[in-house]
Amino acid sequence: MPRVLRRRGGFGAWARRLAGGRAEQPAEGHDPYGGTAVKAPAPYAVRRQPETWPNPAALLLMALGPGPRLWERGPGHPEALTVRLGTVDRPAPDGSGLLPAVPVTADLREVGALGLAGPRARLAGLARAVLAQLAAAHSPDTLEIVLLSADRARPVAERTDEWSWLGWLPHVRPHHGQDCRLLLAYDHEQAAARTDELLRRLEDHRNTASAAGPRTAGPAGEEGCTGPYTVVVVDGDPGGTSVRAAVTRLAQEGPRAGIHVVCLAETAPASAASPVPDTYEAACAVSPVFRECGTVALLSGDVATALRLMRVAAPPPAGGPRAKAACRLPAGPPLPTPVTPGTLAAVDAVSFAWAERFARALAPLRPDGSAGNRPARVPVPLPPSARLLDELGLARATPASLQARWADAADDTTALGGRAWAVLGAGPRGPVCVDLVADGPHLLIEGPAGSGRTELLRSVVASLAAAERPDRLAVVLVEGRDGIGADGGPGDGLRVCTDVPHVTTHLAANDPVRMREFAQSLSAELKRRAELLGRSDFAEWHTRHTASGRVVARRTAASPGVPGPRRAGTGGAAGAAAAGAGAADLDSPPSSTLRLRPGAARRQAEVAPPLPRLVVVVDDLDALVSPALGAPGRPSAGSVIRALEAVAREGGRLGVHLVAATAPGGRTAQSEPVRRATLRIALDAPASGPDEPAPGRGRLTWPDGRVTAFQGGRVTGRIPRTATQRPTVIPLDWQRMGDPPARRSVRELGNGPTDLALLASALERAAREVSAARIPSLL
Ligand SMILES: Nc1ncnc2c1ncn2[C@@H]1O[C@H](COP(=O)(O)OP(=O)(O)OP(=O)(O)O)[C@@H](O)[C@H]1O
Known about the structure:
Elements: H1 3-8, H2 10-18, H3 56-64, E1 82-91, E2 98-107, H4 108-111, E3 114-118, H5 120-137, E4 143-148, H6 156-163, E5 184-185, H7 188-212, E6 229-235, H8 241-253, E7 259-266, H9 276-286, E8 295-300, E9 306-313, E10 337-338, E11 343-347, H10 352-362, E12 386-387, H11 388-391, H12 399-411, E13 421-427, E14 430-435, E15 443-446, H13 453-467, E16 473-479, E17 503-508, H14 512-533, H15 538-547, H16 572-580, E18 613-619, H17 621-625, H18 634-654, E19 656-662, H19 672-675, E20 679-683, E21 697-701, E22 707-714, H20 755-769
Parallel strand pairs: 3-7, 3-8, 4-5, 4-6, 6-7, 12-22, 15-19, 15-20, 16-17, 16-18, 18-19
Antiparallel strand pairs: 1-2, 1-11, 8-9, 9-10, 9-11, 13-14, 13-22, 20-21, 21-22
Bound molecules: adenosine-5'-triphosphate.
C-alpha cells in the first residue's frame, strides 16, 4: 500500500479528498527535465469530488452494468469533455497531510486540442483511458469519436490491431450521414473523407453562427458550443499535405463547432536525457498537428509512468508575455512551447484487454432519451434517395400509429381547423415538413419532366393523410395532363392516391363535361364556405365552433358486421353539413352540383363536418394553363383554371389549399396559382449515373426566403428488404470500415404492395376505427 494511503487511509481521508482544491505546482525554477521555467497559471484543475472523474475500475463497472452514471454528461454539462489523465498526491488544504490520488483533469472545451506524447505502449494505454472516459460519460448522441490513424510510418496491421477495440464503441458509428460504416480512417482516402466531413460541419457551423449574429464568448475566448461534440483522435502524422492542413484547421477552428482534436505522438519519454522542450519538438516532428494543441501531456520518467501536463504558450519575448495565438501567425518567429513545469502526475492507462471489454460492453447500448431531449442534429449531406415512410416515422404504418397521430392533431389547439402537415422528404437536419396552415396556404412544385413532381405530390397527399383524420382534411386530385394509364401502377399519375380515404375526388383532364362540372363544384364549394364563414376566417370560425362543441359531428359507433364508415349523407356537401353540425350556422345551401363519390353513400348515420380543410392537388398545371392542341380536355381547361385561380386567391381564408406541380416558366408563371404560392419548391433535372441522387432532389423556399435542400421521399416504392427482420452477416475488416458502404441498389420485395398501398390500407382501417365520416366528392 502506498505510504500516503497507509498514513491517511479510511473515511477521514476520503472525506478530505472530497474537499480538495487545486493541484500544487512543483517549486518554481527547479525543473529536473530542463524545461523553461515559466510560472504558469495552474492550467488543469485538480478539483473537488474526485469521483466526478471515475478511475478505470469504476469506468468498467459503469459499462458492464450498465451503471446509472453511464452517459451522464449531456450537452452543456459543466464537466462535458473533461477527462482525467492521471492522479497526484497533494497536501490537504487544511494542512492535515497528503490527499492521495487526486485526479488531474483537462477540459477539452478549455484546451481546444489536446496533445499526448510518449513511448507507444504507454501512450496507447493513456489514449485508451481518455477515450473510454469520454465514451462512458457521453452518449453517442452527445459525442462522436473519429479516428485518423493513417501514419504510414507504422504498418497498417499494427495500427488496426491497436485500435480494433475502438470499433466496438457506439460513438464511432456514423450518426450524421457520413459515408462510411465506422468513423475510422486507416488510409489516405479514408482520412480525407473524414476530414472533409468535419470541415463541412465547420463551414456549416460558421454559416449558422453568422446567420444567428454575434454570440457571447465561451471558455478560452471561443464561442461556447453546447454540443453535440466530436473528438478526433489523430494518431501520428495524419497523412498528405491536404489532410495535414485540414486537421490543423480542425485543431484551430474546430472547438468553436464542438470539434476537438486529440493528437498522439510517439516519442521517447521526457527525462533527463530528453528534456521537455526536446520531447515536445520531437512530438511536433512526428505530427505537425501537435503544435496546435493548447495543452500537452508528455509521458515522462524512466518507465513513462509519470505525466507532465502543460499548457502551451509562446515563449515570452523580450517585450513581455504574448498571446498564444500570436505565435501561430506565419510571420511571428516564436513557436509555441509548453509552459513548464506544469503538473506532474501518475498516468492513467488501461490495457488493450480492458479497453476491448469496456467497448464491447457498450456496443449493444443505445441512448433511450426521447427525441426532444437529444441535442440538435448536425446537418448531414442529403441521402441519394429517401423513403417517405421512414421520414414520416411510419416504417410500420399501422392503424394504431395513425390514430395516435390523428388524436394528437385533435388535441392541438393551434390547429383547430385541422392540421395540414406535408412531409416532403429528407433534409439536412432530418425530415422536411411544411405546414400549409402556418407557412402556406399554397405550395408550388416546379421542375422539369422526370424530376419527380408527381411522386412528390403523392408524398404530399400521403403525409397530409397521416397527419389528420379524413373528416377533418379532404384531398381533391386534378391531373392536368391526359396521359393516365389503366393499370394503376406507380407510373400512373395521381390515380394511385385514390385509395387514401382522404381523397374525395379525382379528375383527369380528358373529359370536358366532367371538367366543367368539377370547376362548377369547386367554385360552389368556395362560395358555400364563404357564405358559411361570413366575415370570419377559417381559424376564427373553428375557434368559435369548437368552443361551442358543434364542429365535429359525433356519431354512434358502427354496429358489428356493418361495413365501415365509407358513407356520408346523400344531400351533397352543404346538405351533409347542415344535417351534421348545426343547421343554424348555415344559410340556405347554394345551388350545388356536388355529388357523392359513387358507392360512398351507404348510411346516413355519419355526417361529415361542415368545414374540413380541403387540399386541391394539381399535377401538370402547365398542361391546363396551355393545353396542347387536340388535347381532349382543352375545351374545358379554362374553366378548371378559373376555379383553381379562385382557390389561389380566396382559399387561404376559406381553409382551401392548393398544391400544384408544373414545369417552370411559360405561361404558368403569370397564373394566380403560381404567383400566390407562398411555399415554393424547385426540383432538379433528373441525372443518371451511379453517384447521382434519385429524382426528387430539390430546394424548398420558405415564405421568409430561407431555403432548405431536400431529397423527396418516395412513396410508390416497395418495402425494402432491409426493412425486414433478417440479419445480415458480413466479415469484420477494420481496415475497410472507413470506406463508403458498398453501393448496392436497394432491393425491394418482389411484387409486394407499394408503400403507398400499405399506407392507404392502414389509413382506411384507422378511418374506420375512429368512425370518420366521409367528405362528399366534388363529382
Ligand atoms: N423521390 C423519388 N425517389 C426515387 N425515385 C423517384 C422519386 N421521385 C420520382 N422518382 C422516379 O422518377 C421517375 C419520374 O418521376 P415522376 O413521374 O414523379 O416525375 P415527373 O416530374 O412527374 O415527370 P413526368 O411529368 O415527366 O412524369 C419515376 O420513375 C419515379 O419512380
